[in-house]
## 1
Amino acid sequence: MSDSATPSKATSSGIKPSKQQLRRQIRAARRELSAYRQRLASRRLCARLALCPEVKRARHIGLYWPMDGEIDPRPLLERFPHKCFYLPALPRAARTTMMFLHWPGTTPRYRNRYGIPEPVLGRSSAIRAERLDLVLLPLVAFDPSGARLGMGAGYYDRTFAFKQLRPGSGPDLVGVAHQLQCVDHLPVEPWDIPLTLVATDHRVYRSR
Ligand SMILES: Nc1nc2c(c(=O)[nH]1)N(C=O)[C@@H](CNc1ccc(C(=O)N[C@@H](CCC(=O)O)C(=O)O)cc1)CN2
Ligand SMILES: Nc1ncnc2c1ncn2[C@@H]1O[C@H](COP(=O)(O)OP(=O)(O)OP(=O)(O)O)[C@@H](O)[C@H]1O
C-alpha cells in the first residue's frame, strides 16, 4: 500500500483524474482537516524541516502565508530567530515573476488579489528569487519523485524558470505539504521546476 492518502485512491480505480479534478479533490480534503490536525501537522513538518541540512545552512528563506488548508510553515521562524524570512509578492504585470519581501513574523495588512497577506514593497526590503538560499513552496499535490502540482497559475514555475537554464543555481526548492497530498504519479510538464525535496508532516522525500 502506498502511504499517499484518499485522493490518490481515485487513480487505483484505473480512471485517471484530470489535473483540475485532482486539484479539487485534494484541496477539499486539505480544507477538511480540523484546526487540531492542522496545528499538529505544522509542528511535525517544522520539526522535520529543522533537521534538514538544506534548511540548517540556509540564511535567507522564502516561505508562504498558508491558505485553503495548506500546511503552515510559519513556526519555522520561531525555531530560527537568526535567519531572514521572506514572503512572495505577486507580480504587478501578468506573466512575470514574483519578488520576495522581508517578513518579520507579524501579519501583513495588505492582501493580494487572492486574499493572501503580503508585505508591502517600499516598507519591507525585497530580495530577488535568485538570491534566496532556500524556498518552501506550497503545492496542491506531489509525487515521490518530487513532481509538483500547484494552484495552476504558474507563479512558482515562472519565478524559478532560471534554474532550468542554470542548473544548480539559485535556492534549494523544498515542497511542503500534508501527507494526504501525496499521489502515486504526476505528469511532468516541460516548464515544471524540479524540487530538491518534499517534506510532509510524516516524512521527507529526496529526489536528487
Ligand atoms: N499560500 C500560498 N501563497 C501563494 C501561492 C499558493 O499556492 N499558496 N501561489 C502559488 O502559485 C501564488 C498565488 N497563486 C494562487 C493561484 C490561485 C489561487 C486561487 O485561489 N484561485 C482560485 C480562483 C480565483 C480566481 O480565479 O480569481 C481557485 O482556484 O479557487 C490562489 C493563489 C503565490 N502565493
Ligand atoms: N517558465 C514559464 N514560462 C512561461 N509560462 C509558464 C512557465 N511556467 C509555467 N507557465 C505557464 O503557467 C501555466 C500554469 O502552469 P501549471 O499548471 O504548471 O502551474 P502550477 O505549478 O500548478 O501553479 P503555481 O506555480 O502557481 O502554484 C501553464 O499553462 C504555463 O503556460
## 2
Amino acid sequence: MTTPHTAAEKAHILSEALPYIQRFYDKTIVIKYGGNAMTERHLMEAFAKDVVLLKLVGMNPVVVHGGGPQIAGLLQRIGKQSEFIQGMRVTDEETLDVVEMVLGGLVNQDIVTLINKHGGRAVGLTGKDGNFIHAKKMLVKSKEKADELLDIGQVGEITGIDPEIIQVLDARDFIPVVAPLGTDSEGNAYNINADVAAGKIAGVLQAEKVIFMTNTPGVLDKQMQLLTGLTPREVDELIADGTISGGMIPKVGYAVDAVNSGVKTAHIIDGRVEHALLLEVLTPEGVGTLIKRG
Ligand SMILES: Nc1ncnc2c1ncn2[C@@H]1O[C@H](COP(=O)(O)OP(=O)(O)O)[C@@H](O)[C@H]1O
Ligand SMILES: CC(=O)N[C@@H](CCC(=O)OP(=O)(O)O)C(=O)O
C-alpha cells in the first residue's frame, strides 16, 4: 500500500508537470507499445489514459504497437511454431495471415477502443493505409557464414515512410495508432518488427522523443542494474560484449538510429509500471534508460 498524498503534496506533483507541458507542447512523441507490455488490462487502461492526457495538454502522441506474444498465442492455437532469426519472426504465407489479423486487427483495434473509451480520438491504421510504410523483403546475414544472406519470408525492411497521413491526423487532433505492416509497389504485404517501425517513424517525423515501452526496467548491465543513460557508442559496446541480446538488440539499435536521424531523445521504459508513460514525459523523475547523442 502506498501512503496517500496530502493536498499540498498533490498540488506540488501537479505543478511539477508545468515545465514539461510547456517544453513538449506541440511536439511529436512516438510511443512504441510492445506486446510484452500489454499483458495486463489495468496497465493497458492506464496507458490509454496517459496517451489521452498527453494529447489534451497539447502534445502529438503517435502510438506504434507490437504484438509478438499475441501473434505467438494465435499461432499456437492453430498448431504452428514460430522461429526467430536475429530477432525477426520467420514469416511464411500462413504466418503472415496471422500477423496481419493480430497486428492490423485485434491488437490495433483493442488499443484504439481503449483510447477512445477514455475520451481520445484514436484512428487505427497499418503501414499499408495511405501507402504509408514502403517495404521490401528483408534478407538477414547468416551468423555461420558471413557472406550468406538468409530469406526469412515476408519480413519487411523499410525503404521509405510517407508521414503525410500521420501529420493530417495529428493536425486534426486524432491520435494515430499504427500497426507495423508495410507494402511494396507490387502490393505484397510485409511483417515489420515494431521497434524498427517506431524508430523509423520517429526519425521521419523528427519527433521530440521516441519511447519504447517493454517488460524490463530499461537496459540492464551484466549485474542486472539499470543503466539510466547511454550514448550510441556505449550501446555498440554493450551489444559487442553480449550485455544486450535478443529482443533488446533491435530496440536499442533503432533507438540509436532515431537519435542519429534527429530525434532528440530515445527512452526504453518499463511498461509494467502503471503510468510509466506519464512519469517519463511529465515528471522530473524520468524512468528507464535514456539514449541521446553523446
Ligand atoms: N541488457 C538487457 N537489458 C534488458 N533487457 C534485455 C537485455 N538484453 C536482452 N534483454 C531482453 O530483451 C527483452 C525485451 O525485448 P522484447 O522481448 O523483444 O520486448 P517487446 O515485446 O517489448 O519488444 C527483455 O525482456 C530481456 O529479456
Ligand atoms: C518481423 C517481426 O519479427 N515482426 C514482429 C512484429 C510484432 C512485434 O514486433 O511485436 P513486439 O514489439 O511485441 O515484439 C513479429 O512478428 O513478432
## 3
Amino acid sequence: MPLLHVDDVVVQFGGVTAVNHANFEVEQGSITGLIGPNGAGKTTTFNVVTGLQTPTSGRVVFDDKDITRMPVHRRSRRGIGRTFQRLEAFGSLTVAENVRTAFDIHDGFAGLFRSVQNDVDDLLDLVGIANHADDRADSIPTGTARLLELARALACDPKLLLLDEPSSGLDESETEAFGELLQQLANEGRTILMVEHDMDLVMNVCDTIHVLDFGSVIADGTPAQVRANPVVQKAYLGYSDDGPAGDDTAVLPLVNEEVVL
Ligand SMILES: Nc1ncnc2c1ncn2[C@@H]1O[C@H](COP(=O)(O)OP(=O)(O)OP(=O)(O)O)[C@@H](O)[C@H]1O
C-alpha cells in the first residue's frame, strides 16, 4: 500500500492547465523524485498534496485516507511536512529558536508541559548545523538556511516530507552530505518526495522518479529506467537519442557533469 496516491489530479488556472490528470504513488520509506522541465507542474502538485491548492478534479489519498478537501493544518497533523523553494525561516530569531518554534506549534497545548531543548539540539545535530544554533537566521549562509528549513519540517515529525528544490544554494560537498542525510532519514522510516533540479542528487538518492511534462506524468521508474527513457529525453531536450541498446549513459546527456534541463 503506497503512503501517497495522487489520483488523476487536474489543476486549472483560468485557461492554463498546470496539472493534467497526474497520477503517481509514493511508497512508504522511499525517496521519490518528482522532476520535469520548468513549468511542468511540480510545485502546483506539491501544493495540491499539502493543501495549499485545491485541485479542479482528482483525489489525493494519504495513509489510506482521502485528504483532497482536508485543510493544511490537519494534513500537517496527519504527518505531511514540507519545505519551500523560497526560504521561510524567521530572520530575527536564532536558528535554535526557529526550530523550537516549530516544535511549539506542532506540540500545541501539550508543549506547555515539556522542554524541547534536547529535541532542538538533537535535530540541529542531525542536520549538521548545531554550530549555528545561536546565529540569527537572517545571518546564516543559504546552504545552512536550507538545512534549517529541513530541521523545522522534521520538528513536526512528518511521515511524508516534501522537499521543494532542497539543494538549491548548497555547494557540491554540502549537496553530497545532504544526499546522505536524506538516505539516513529514509532508513529511519521517513518517506521523502522531492522536487529537485540537481540531477546528480536525484539520480544518486531516489528509489523512484516520476517525470512531469505539461502537467502529466510521462514516465516513472528507477533512476536508470528514467535516464534511459527516450520520452523523458525528448521532454527535456526536444529530441530523443536512443543510443546503443542497453546503454543508459547514452541518454540525458551531461554538460559539465550536469544534466541539461
Ligand atoms: N497561481 C497561478 N496562476 C496562474 N498560473 C499558474 C499559477 N501557478 C502556476 N501557474 C502556471 O502553472 C504551470 C505550472 O507551474 P509550476 O510552478 O507548478 O511548475 P514547476 O514545474 O514547479 O516549475 P519550476 O520548475 O519553474 O518551479 C506554469 O505554466 C505556471 O505558469
